[in-house]
Specification:
Strand order of the largest sheet: 1-2
Shape: elongated
Structural class: mainly alpha
Length: 198
């Protein structure tokens, strides 16, 4: 169970973000009304929302990620900064949020995650790139099909299958020999798309 102080802190943060968004200033200019969509307070609160993800798990973490994604472009600067966090969970979660936001202007931030030292972050970055229509993550996803972790294999396979419509007989929970053969077919496919790009 979460400590009451952490729950209260999270609740207050959400309330303050909503309040700050509702209290955005309005200025009248020569050509009409200019509504300011964000301010320094909202930005700071969104960054706090991102950084708090390091302490979250399961449904609480998913809810926070979905909340940030629902903020769309307003959350992008804080989420892009979070993609460079010193905490792997924050980096991975931010990669997911950037995919859910769906703004291709963030592709280069996501692509930087392909070289992360933590495999989970690399796989999430690759999956997000595929979701955003960028094929640079395919080699990382194919590499992930041979990962020793069942969940990582599943995630990589689902990203590949969703993006390409192919499965090449791969089963993330299949026998090791069968998986190896299917990974070989995925590697052949990868060689094929590399050749066609030349």
């Amino acid at each position: 169970m979460l400590a009451p102080r952490l729950v209260l802190s999270s609740f207050l943060s959400v309330a303050l973000v909503a309040l700050a968004a509702g209290c955005a200033t309005t200025r009248s200019g020569d050509d009409g009304v200019d509504v300011s969509r964000g301010n320094a307070t909202t930005s700071a609160l969104l960054r706090q929302q991102v950084e708090e993800m390091r302490f979250m798990h399961q449904q609480e973490l998913l809810s926070r990620m979905q909340y940030l994604a629902s903020m769309g472009e307003d959350a992008s600067p804080a989420v892009c900064d979070g993609a460079k966090s010193d905490d792997w969970l924050v980096r991975s979660s931010c990669m997911w949020v950037l995919g859910a936001i769906g703004d291709r202007r963030n592709v280069e931030v996501v692509a930087s995650g392909l070289h992360d030292k933590v495999p989970v972050v690399r796989y999430q970055a690759a999956s997000t790139l595929a979701r955003l229509g960028d094929g640079r993550g395919f080699p990382v996803l194919v590499e992930g099909l041979a990962d020793s972790d069942l969940q990582s294999r599943y995630k990589c396979f689902q990203a590949l299958k969703t993006t390409t419509g192919q499965d090449f007989g791969y089963q993330h929970d299949g026998a090791p020999d069968e998986r190896r053969q299917a990974v070989g077919r995925w590697l052949d496919w990868l060689d094929g798309i590399k050749s066609s790009a030349l």
